[in-house]
């Protein structure tokens, strides 16, 4: 059939109508009941979620029900919460189920090329679930007080313990495990049984710890949050471990772990720099099993769009992690020449908020490698910069550290496979590598993030 057979001005062309899912909230912003045409009017706070995954959308809708009174009918000069409550971890515990085995559309939205779950999309959901749990803990169920503004401050660590299939149902369960004055730590576990209906004790496929901070929604200042009362032995142990992590973070911020590069540290720097100088000064004589750090770099950029915002109007933290992961994966792929396999995300700090319209640049590099024949490790750094060309300024918003290996089945097919050593060309790069190696070793010896 010739689709262009009708003349340009013919009336036989049929226009295909496009119908929006939700009616405009501006037509009657005070109402969330059925409209005159039977459509449900959503408060504006719920709109951003429809651009995210269906899981993130569901989590944001659940979270927004607590905030609904504030967005639809904000009380005049509503006071803050007057009395802090004592809550248990069980009161914030939330579970979300992915029906991959029966929901074809959901399964296809999360499938990667290797029939596993897309880690980047899962990172978005983890951030959304952690935010919903923090709101549940901080809610005082009092419609006369103004709700808190809760934002992602950092991610302690995300560790993948086994592959996550996209064909088997998946659960994510999380709860608040520790509370400071204005900060909250949430632990999340992704569980998936190896077989449908089995109850394996090793079903935890991924674990993550998120730290949120509370701000007064009117003044923007740090606000106190409800206390927590661990009940079970496991809850008490998790609280103690989180308390230790919090103390370590405080020491790092205060410079307590800052080291002077003297004696042996200088020797480590010189060893790292020695091969880099050969690459720069005598490239023909450089070690063919090494590569300069700067030659592993990749970069991408974007303008932050309204569809990427969260319910508070800022760019969704899970979206930033998703984009950083995709770039890190590509960097590891281009470096190794084989499909990488994700292992973990190290501690992430959200240093400054990202707004709609911001010019965001992601820069990645292979920071260092660990040449282990059984499981070679590729450590990727991704730095997100908020760039403002009008002001000639660029600020770091986030720094992410991802660890990958290569898929065993891919490595087995490539005879003579090897991972190159990464060497710095400048003293600044060498210091940065040593800092990261030592930070990783410190967390491992103290048992954090396991």
UniProtKB/TrEMBL annotation:
It comes from the Eukaryota. InterPro entries: HOTDOG_ACOT (IPR033120), HotDog_dom_sf (IPR029069). GO terms for molecular function: fatty acyl-CoA hydrolase activity. Coiled coil: none annotated. GO terms for biological process: acyl-CoA metabolic process. Residues 96-218, 294-410 form the HotDog ACOT-type domain. This is HotDog ACOT-type domain-containing protein. The lineage of its organism: Eukaryota, Viridiplantae, Streptophyta, Embryophyta, Tracheophyta. Residues 1-20 are annotated as: Disordered. Keywords: Hydrolase, Repeat, Transit peptide. Residues 1-13 have a biased composition (Low complexity). It comes from Prunus persica (Peach).
């Amino acid at each position: 059939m010739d689709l262009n057979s009708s003349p340009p001005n013919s009336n036989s062309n049929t226009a295909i109508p496009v119908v929006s899912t939700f009616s405009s909230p501006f037509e009657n912003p005070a109402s969330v009941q059925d409209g005159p045409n039977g459509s449900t009017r959503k408060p504006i706070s719920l709109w951003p979620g429809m651009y995210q995954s269906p899981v993130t959308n569901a989590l944001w809708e659940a979270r927004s029900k607590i905030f609904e009174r504030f967005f639809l009918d904000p009380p005049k000069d509503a006071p803050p919460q007057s009395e802090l409550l004592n809550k248990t971890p069980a009161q914030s515990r939330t579970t979300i189920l992915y029906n991959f085995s029966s929901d074809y559309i959901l399964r296809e939205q999360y499938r990667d090329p290797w029939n596993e779950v897309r880690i980047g999309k899962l990172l978005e959901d983890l951030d959304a679930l952690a935010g919903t749990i923090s709101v549940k803990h901080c809610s005082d169920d009092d419609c006369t007080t103004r709700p808190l503004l809760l934002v992602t401050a950092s991610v302690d660590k995300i560790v993948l313990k086994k592959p996550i299939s996209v064909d088997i149902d998946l659960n994510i369960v999380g709860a608040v495990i520790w509370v400071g004055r204005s900060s909250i730590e949430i632990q999340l576990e992704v569980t998936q049984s190896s077989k449908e209906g089995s109850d394996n004790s090793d079903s935890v496929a991924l674990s993550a710890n998120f730290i949120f901070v509370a701000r007064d929604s009117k003044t923007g200042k740090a606000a106190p949050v409800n206390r927590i009362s661990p009940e079970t032995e496991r809850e008490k142990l998790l609280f103690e471990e989180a308390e230790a992590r919090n103390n370590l973070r405080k020491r790092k911020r205060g410079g307590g772990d800052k080291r002077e590069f003297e004696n042996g540290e200088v020797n480590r720097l010189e060893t790292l720099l020695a091969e880099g100088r050969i690459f720069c000064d005598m490239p023909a004589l450089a070690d063919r099993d090494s590569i300069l750090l700067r030659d592993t770099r990749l970069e991408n950029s974007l303008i932050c769009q309204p569809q990427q915002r969260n319910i508070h109007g800022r760019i969704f933290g899970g979206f930033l992690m998703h984009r950083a992961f995709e770039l890190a994966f590509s960097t590891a792929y281009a470096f190794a020449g084989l499909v990488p396999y994700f292992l973990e995300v190290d501690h992430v700090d959200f240093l400054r908020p990202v707004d709609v319209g911001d010019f965001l640049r992601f820069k990645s590099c292979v920071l260092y490698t660990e040449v282990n024949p059984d499981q070679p490790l590729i450590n990727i750094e991704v730095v997100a910069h908020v760039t403002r060309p009008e002001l000639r300024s660029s600020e770091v918003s986030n720094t992410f550290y991802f660890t990958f290996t290569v898929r065993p089945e891919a490595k087995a097919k490539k005879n003579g496979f090897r991972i190159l050593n990464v060497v710095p060309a400048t003293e600044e790069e060498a210091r940065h590598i040593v800092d990261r190696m030592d930070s990783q070793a410190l967390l491992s010896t103290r048992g954090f993030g396991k």
